[in-house]
Amino acid sequence: MMFHELPTLRVIDETFTEILHPVIEEVPVAVIVNGRHTLTAMTSPVMLREFVIGFLHTERIIRSLDDIESIRIDDHKVSVLTKHPFEILVSKKTVLSGCGGTSSFLDSTHLPSAPLGRIISPGVIQSAVKTALLSDLHKETGGIHIVGLFDADGGVIRIVEDIGRHNALDRAIGYALESGIDFEKTFVVCSGRISSEMARKCLIAGIPLVASRGATTTLAVTIAEQANLTLIGFVRSNKMNIYSGRERIAGAPAPSE
179: Cβ–Cβ under 8 A, 6 or more apart, which residues? Predict the structure, then answer.
Protein backbone atom coordinates (compact mmCIF):
# COMPACT_ATOMS: atom_id res chain seq x y z
CA MET A 1 0.00 0.00 0.00
CA MET A 2 1.42 3.38 -1.06
CA PHE A 3 -1.21 5.58 0.60
CA HIS A 4 -3.29 5.98 3.72
CA GLU A 5 -6.80 7.37 3.97
CA LEU A 6 -6.67 10.34 6.32
CA PRO A 7 -9.52 12.38 7.80
CA THR A 8 -9.97 15.54 5.78
CA LEU A 9 -12.36 18.47 5.76
CA ARG A 10 -13.44 19.04 2.17
CA VAL A 11 -14.80 22.40 1.10
CA ILE A 12 -16.96 22.84 -2.00
CA ASP A 13 -18.23 26.38 -2.35
CA GLU A 14 -19.39 27.02 1.26
CA THR A 15 -20.22 23.43 2.11
CA PHE A 16 -17.93 21.55 4.54
CA THR A 17 -17.84 17.75 4.54
CA GLU A 18 -15.82 15.31 6.68
CA ILE A 19 -14.26 12.68 4.40
CA LEU A 20 -11.44 10.17 4.24
CA HIS A 21 -8.96 11.10 1.50
CA PRO A 22 -6.05 8.99 0.16
CA VAL A 23 -2.68 10.60 0.93
CA ILE A 24 0.53 9.20 -0.56
CA GLU A 25 2.96 7.65 1.94
CA GLU A 26 6.48 9.01 2.44
CA VAL A 27 9.05 7.20 4.58
CA PRO A 28 12.78 7.53 5.28
CA VAL A 29 14.76 4.54 4.03
CA ALA A 30 18.30 4.05 5.32
CA VAL A 31 20.80 2.32 3.02
CA ILE A 32 23.85 0.72 4.63
CA VAL A 33 26.66 -0.30 2.27
CA ASN A 34 29.41 -2.49 3.73
CA GLY A 35 28.49 -1.34 7.24
CA ARG A 36 28.49 2.36 6.39
CA HIS A 37 25.36 4.53 6.41
CA THR A 38 25.48 5.68 2.81
CA LEU A 39 22.05 7.07 2.08
CA THR A 40 18.79 8.20 3.59
CA ALA A 41 16.05 8.36 0.96
CA MET A 42 12.65 9.95 1.48
CA THR A 43 10.66 7.65 -0.72
CA SER A 44 7.62 5.43 -1.22
CA PRO A 45 7.86 2.16 0.73
CA VAL A 46 7.74 -0.18 -2.29
CA MET A 47 10.29 -1.95 -4.51
CA LEU A 48 13.07 -1.11 -2.06
CA ARG A 49 15.40 -3.78 -3.44
CA GLU A 50 15.05 -2.43 -6.99
CA PHE A 51 15.44 1.14 -5.77
CA VAL A 52 18.69 0.40 -3.94
CA ILE A 53 20.15 -1.59 -6.86
CA GLY A 54 19.29 1.19 -9.30
CA PHE A 55 20.63 3.90 -7.01
CA LEU A 56 23.93 2.08 -6.38
CA HIS A 57 24.31 1.56 -10.12
CA THR A 58 23.56 5.14 -11.16
CA GLU A 59 25.87 6.41 -8.41
CA ARG A 60 28.58 4.09 -9.81
CA ILE A 61 28.92 2.32 -6.48
CA ILE A 62 28.31 -0.91 -8.37
CA ARG A 63 28.84 -1.57 -12.06
CA SER A 64 26.62 -4.64 -12.29
CA LEU A 65 24.65 -7.08 -10.16
CA ASP A 66 27.80 -9.18 -9.91
CA ASP A 67 29.26 -6.55 -7.57
CA ILE A 68 26.59 -7.30 -4.94
CA GLU A 69 27.21 -10.03 -2.38
CA SER A 70 23.90 -9.68 -0.55
CA ILE A 71 20.95 -7.36 0.11
CA ARG A 72 18.89 -7.53 3.31
CA ILE A 73 15.72 -5.49 3.84
CA ASP A 74 14.57 -4.90 7.41
CA ASP A 75 11.53 -2.63 7.55
CA HIS A 76 12.85 0.74 6.28
CA LYS A 77 16.51 -0.24 6.37
CA VAL A 78 18.39 -1.87 3.48
CA SER A 79 21.83 -3.38 4.09
CA VAL A 80 24.09 -4.18 1.14
CA LEU A 81 27.36 -6.08 1.05
CA THR A 82 29.52 -5.74 -2.05
CA LYS A 83 32.19 -8.11 -3.29
CA HIS A 84 34.86 -5.39 -3.39
CA PRO A 85 34.14 -3.27 -0.30
CA PHE A 86 37.55 -1.60 -0.13
CA GLU A 87 37.29 -0.31 -3.70
CA ILE A 88 34.09 1.58 -3.01
CA LEU A 89 34.29 4.95 -1.31
CA VAL A 90 30.96 6.60 -0.66
CA SER A 91 29.79 9.55 1.40
CA LYS A 92 26.57 9.77 3.37
CA LYS A 93 23.83 11.68 1.56
CA THR A 94 20.13 12.34 1.67
CA VAL A 95 17.79 11.92 -1.28
CA LEU A 96 14.83 14.25 -0.94
CA SER A 97 11.37 13.24 -2.07
CA GLY A 98 10.30 16.43 -3.84
CA CYS A 99 12.81 16.44 -6.66
CA GLY A 100 14.99 13.51 -5.73
CA GLY A 101 17.81 15.97 -5.19
CA THR A 102 21.12 14.64 -3.92
CA SER A 103 24.53 15.94 -3.05
CA SER A 104 26.06 14.22 -6.09
CA PHE A 105 28.71 16.27 -7.87
CA LEU A 106 27.78 16.45 -11.53
CA ASP A 107 30.78 16.56 -13.89
CA SER A 108 29.32 16.18 -17.38
CA THR A 109 32.75 15.64 -18.92
CA HIS A 110 33.01 12.28 -17.11
CA LEU A 111 29.65 10.94 -18.25
CA PRO A 112 29.50 8.19 -20.90
CA SER A 113 27.98 8.87 -24.29
CA ALA A 114 24.55 7.42 -24.95
CA PRO A 115 24.51 4.20 -26.99
CA LEU A 116 23.24 4.34 -30.55
CA GLY A 117 19.98 2.66 -29.69
CA ARG A 118 17.11 2.22 -32.13
CA ILE A 119 15.16 4.58 -34.37
CA ILE A 120 11.80 5.27 -32.71
CA SER A 121 8.73 6.90 -34.23
CA PRO A 122 7.02 9.88 -32.58
CA GLY A 123 3.83 7.82 -32.32
CA VAL A 124 5.55 5.15 -30.22
CA ILE A 125 6.83 7.79 -27.78
CA GLN A 126 3.46 9.52 -27.54
CA SER A 127 1.71 6.21 -26.94
CA ALA A 128 4.25 5.25 -24.25
CA VAL A 129 3.73 8.51 -22.36
CA LYS A 130 -0.03 8.04 -22.51
CA THR A 131 0.28 4.45 -21.27
CA ALA A 132 2.61 5.37 -18.40
CA LEU A 133 0.32 8.11 -17.15
CA LEU A 134 -2.72 5.81 -16.86
CA SER A 135 -2.22 5.53 -13.10
CA ASP A 136 -5.13 4.95 -10.74
CA LEU A 137 -2.88 5.88 -7.83
CA HIS A 138 -2.08 9.24 -9.42
CA LYS A 139 -5.78 9.88 -10.04
CA GLU A 140 -6.62 9.01 -6.43
CA THR A 141 -3.85 10.87 -4.63
CA GLY A 142 -2.41 13.40 -7.11
CA GLY A 143 0.87 12.95 -5.24
CA ILE A 144 3.18 10.72 -7.25
CA HIS A 145 5.59 10.76 -10.16
CA ILE A 146 5.61 8.07 -12.82
CA VAL A 147 8.54 6.62 -14.76
CA GLY A 148 8.06 4.04 -17.49
CA LEU A 149 10.78 1.90 -19.07
CA PHE A 150 9.77 0.73 -22.55
CA ASP A 151 11.39 -1.34 -25.27
CA ALA A 152 12.09 0.29 -28.62
CA ASP A 153 8.80 -1.01 -30.05
CA GLY A 154 6.81 0.64 -27.27
CA GLY A 155 6.28 -2.46 -25.15
CA VAL A 156 6.09 -1.92 -21.39
CA ILE A 157 9.08 -3.26 -19.44
CA ARG A 158 8.14 -1.65 -16.14
CA ILE A 159 6.10 1.33 -14.94
CA VAL A 160 7.07 2.67 -11.52
CA GLU A 161 5.33 5.13 -9.20
CA ASP A 162 7.05 7.08 -6.45
CA ILE A 163 6.85 10.41 -4.67
CA GLY A 164 10.15 11.35 -6.38
CA ARG A 165 10.80 10.90 -10.09
CA HIS A 166 14.51 10.22 -9.55
CA ASN A 167 13.65 7.47 -7.08
CA ALA A 168 11.20 6.04 -9.61
CA LEU A 169 13.90 6.04 -12.30
CA ASP A 170 16.31 4.23 -9.98
CA ARG A 171 13.62 1.62 -9.32
CA ALA A 172 13.03 1.06 -13.03
CA ILE A 173 16.78 0.75 -13.64
CA GLY A 174 17.17 -1.65 -10.71
CA TYR A 175 14.29 -3.78 -12.00
CA ALA A 176 15.84 -3.90 -15.48
CA LEU A 177 19.26 -4.87 -14.11
CA GLU A 178 17.74 -7.79 -12.23
CA SER A 179 15.75 -8.80 -15.31
CA GLY A 180 18.75 -8.74 -17.65
CA ILE A 181 17.32 -6.00 -19.89
CA ASP A 182 19.56 -4.52 -22.60
CA PHE A 183 19.26 -0.79 -21.88
CA GLU A 184 20.41 0.14 -25.40
CA LYS A 185 17.09 -1.19 -26.71
CA THR A 186 14.97 0.83 -24.28
CA PHE A 187 13.74 4.33 -23.62
CA VAL A 188 12.35 6.13 -20.56
CA VAL A 189 9.25 8.27 -20.20
CA CYS A 190 8.32 10.26 -17.12
CA SER A 191 5.60 12.48 -15.76
CA GLY A 192 7.75 15.28 -14.37
CA ARG A 193 10.50 17.66 -15.37
CA ILE A 194 13.66 16.17 -16.93
CA SER A 195 16.48 17.48 -14.76
CA SER A 196 20.24 17.11 -15.16
CA GLU A 197 20.09 14.29 -12.60
CA MET A 198 17.55 12.39 -14.70
CA ALA A 199 19.77 12.78 -17.76
CA ARG A 200 22.81 11.66 -15.76
CA LYS A 201 21.11 8.51 -14.51
CA CYS A 202 19.97 7.57 -18.03
CA LEU A 203 23.49 8.02 -19.41
CA ILE A 204 25.12 5.91 -16.70
CA ALA A 205 22.56 3.16 -17.21
CA GLY A 206 23.04 3.32 -20.99
CA ILE A 207 19.50 4.43 -21.88
CA PRO A 208 19.59 6.38 -25.18
CA LEU A 209 16.31 8.33 -24.97
CA VAL A 210 14.25 10.03 -22.27
CA ALA A 211 10.92 11.78 -22.84
CA SER A 212 8.49 13.58 -20.57
CA ARG A 213 5.04 15.05 -20.56
CA GLY A 214 6.66 17.98 -18.76
CA ALA A 215 9.51 20.41 -19.27
CA THR A 216 13.28 20.09 -19.05
CA THR A 217 16.14 22.28 -17.85
CA THR A 218 18.97 23.97 -19.70
CA LEU A 219 21.60 21.87 -17.92
CA ALA A 220 19.79 18.65 -18.83
CA VAL A 221 19.77 19.74 -22.49
CA THR A 222 23.47 20.68 -22.37
CA ILE A 223 24.37 17.29 -20.91
CA ALA A 224 22.17 15.51 -23.44
CA GLU A 225 23.79 17.36 -26.34
CA GLN A 226 27.30 16.60 -25.10
CA ALA A 227 26.55 12.91 -24.58
CA ASN A 228 24.23 12.43 -27.59
CA LEU A 229 21.24 11.55 -25.42
CA THR A 230 17.85 12.04 -27.07
CA LEU A 231 15.87 14.37 -24.81
CA ILE A 232 12.21 15.13 -25.50
CA GLY A 233 9.78 17.29 -23.54
CA PHE A 234 6.12 18.34 -23.63
CA VAL A 235 4.90 15.05 -25.10
CA ARG A 236 1.19 15.75 -25.22
CA SER A 237 -1.42 14.47 -27.67
CA ASN A 238 0.29 14.67 -31.08
CA LYS A 239 3.01 17.16 -30.02
CA MET A 240 6.53 16.98 -28.60
CA ASN A 241 9.69 19.07 -28.40
CA ILE A 242 12.95 17.33 -29.38
CA TYR A 243 15.84 19.14 -27.70
CA SER A 244 18.70 16.80 -28.63
CA GLY A 245 19.45 13.50 -30.35
CA ARG A 246 16.92 13.95 -33.15
CA GLU A 247 18.67 11.27 -35.24
CA ARG A 248 16.92 8.58 -33.17
CA ILE A 249 13.48 9.88 -34.10
CA ALA A 250 11.98 8.47 -37.29
CA GLY A 251 11.34 11.17 -39.91
CA ALA A 252 13.15 13.95 -38.05
CA PRO A 253 15.04 16.29 -40.42
CA ALA A 254 18.76 16.86 -40.02
CA PRO A 255 19.61 19.98 -37.99
CA SER A 256 19.89 23.16 -40.03
CA GLU A 257 23.31 24.75 -40.38
Answer: 157
Mean pLDDT of the chain: 89
What Rg value do the Cα atoms of the chain yield, rounded? 19
Set 99, 111, 133, 204: catalytic member: 99
Q: Which domains does the chain have, with CATH numbers?
A: 27-103 (3.10.20.10), 122-248 (3.40.140.10)
Q: Note the pLDDT tens digit of each residue in 99-158.
A: 444 444 456 668 999 999 999 999 999 999 999 988 777 777 777 889 999 999 999 999
Active site residue 99: yes
How does DSSP classify residue 253?
A: P
Query: Does 170 score more than 60 pLDDT?
Result: yes
HSE-CB at 217 with a 13 A cutoff on CA atoms is 12
Taking CA atoms, 29 is separated from 222, 233, 252, in Å, by 32, 31, 43
Confirm if 249 and 240 have CB atoms less than 8 A apart: no
